[in-house]
Specification:
CATH architecture: Orthogonal Bundle
CATH superfamily: Cytochrome c-like domain
Largest sheet: none
Strand content: under 5%
Number of helices: 5
Oligomer: single chain
Radius of gyration: 12 Å
């Protein structure tokens, strides 16, 4: 797993819709700073879709891996346009970056 590769993936694939800095404003998607290991849909001031609210996830390795592989399959009805990361290594690298940014 590589945090640096994960950061590059985040910038290329996630940053157009999500911020990842403490106190940054929401974009199309919520700010993801510190979300890894926490309950889903807890970013104050962001209007989540009913579909993701009903899932009531805790963002751990298992749920995040499944979600970022194919968000629309995992959460039917999500507003998220991201088609997912099909390669397991890319998901592992992205999660390594998320873990680092959640400390």
């Amino acid at each position: 797993m590589s945090e640096s590769v994960g950061k590059k993936l985040f910038i290329a694939r996630c940053a157009p819709c999500h911020s990842m800095e403490l106190g940054a404003k929401h974009k199309v998607g919520p700010n993801l700073f510190g979300f890894f290991g926490k309950r889903s849909c807890t970013s104050e001031g962001f209007a989540y879709s009913d579909a993701i609210v009903k899932k009531a996830y805790t963002w751990d390795e298992e749920t995040l891996n499944r979600f970022i592989e194919d968000p629309r399959r995992d959460v039917p009805g999500t507003k998220m346009l991201f088609v997912g990361l099909k390669k397991p290594q890319e998901r592992e690298d992205l999660m390594a970056y998320f873990r680092k940014m959640s400390k």
